[in-house]
């Protein structure tokens, strides 16, 4: 036995040799293994490979699902889903870590699948994709119906047969996969494709998305988000008919009408031609029997209305004559009134003109104002030696008030006063 402290006899390995040995050991020991865990950190690379981790309460295991297998998965895996992955474990020496190479993915029981379905339903419902106000009415008599389903299954035959029996219309089939990982993308593409058909192709009035019965895994494509969003965004009304009557998928909540079976979808899409013919014939018989009486009744009403109309016309003519007479009298009254008012206006104008103070001034009177322009009406308003303005009919002259005493006063021109004052000063 070699002592712990003595390592001179231990073989020496390179890093590559150790990494390779570990890789061989892992691949030989875990060449085919099933591992149960919860998906975490899922990423889809541009190459199409899917990278994620499997975890439980105590550990995390890296995993990769290559593009070829990723395209064949029965459902789109997502974070939080508990799955069982089958594959082999290998290491990557360049990065010194190991991972599970996934060859198969299964949901860990129906419970886990239903839990994932409920979680997705709540998310899409919160976004309003299932709201009743988004539902579009189904046309009663469509001219063209678009069907999205497998082109080789019994579903399309059932739909064609049922529509042909009830009310033959033009049908456009968009064949898709209805199961497997590529199914969801094809179904969503068909819905979008019908909504964006060129004008040269008649756009359907209704779309039927259908598939026969199966397990929850078989119907999973109709639970994928890409299909639900395409259904909710469709401008063409959609009838979903997936599985049997007891099967429910998320497309049923997003569609405008859910049919329990594909055959039932055909019955919802078109009425029964024979029933329509019977209804039309019944209505025609009722019309034929009631039309003569209706015509006779309306003729009587028309005659009564004609008599009444004649009476009212005589009244209208009489009233028109009275109205013309009233208008004539009213016109004369208005003319006479205007003439009288005009005469009075002229007289008042002449009186006003005769009383104008300028007319009074022409008769020899004068208007006296103080230096502020205020009219002087009394001797008491004149201040000694104040300048006053005397307005005659042909102009205005300033004067100086002197020797004011009672009713006797003397008024001189200011210029003469200045002249006298100047002579007095010189003496």
UniProtKB/TrEMBL annotation:
Upper lineage: Bacteria, Pseudomonadati, Pseudomonadota, Alphaproteobacteria, Rickettsiales
Enzyme Commission number(s) of this protein: 3.1.11.6
GO terms for biological process, alphabetical: DNA catabolic process
Record domain OB-fold nucleic acid binding: where: 13-106
Major site of localization recorded for this protein: cytoplasm
Organism this protein belongs to: Candidatus Jidaibacter acanthamoebae
GO molecular function: exodeoxyribonuclease VII activity; nucleic acid binding
Catalytic activity: Exonucleolytic cleavage in either 5'- to 3'- or 3'- to 5'-direction to yield nucleoside 5'-phosphates
Summary of the function given for this chain in its UniProt record: Bidirectionally degrades single-stranded DNA into large acid-insoluble oligonucleotides, which are then degraded further into small acid-soluble oligonucleotides.
Name recorded for this polypeptide: Exodeoxyribonuclease 7 large subunit
Compartments, record wording: Cytoplasm
NCBIfam families listed in its UniProt record: xseA
Leading EC class: hydrolase
Domain of life: Bacteria
UniProt GO cellular component terms: cytoplasm; exodeoxyribonuclease VII complex
Family that this chain belongs to: Belongs to the XseA family.
All residue ranges annotated as the Exonuclease VII large subunit C-terminal domain in the record: 129-346
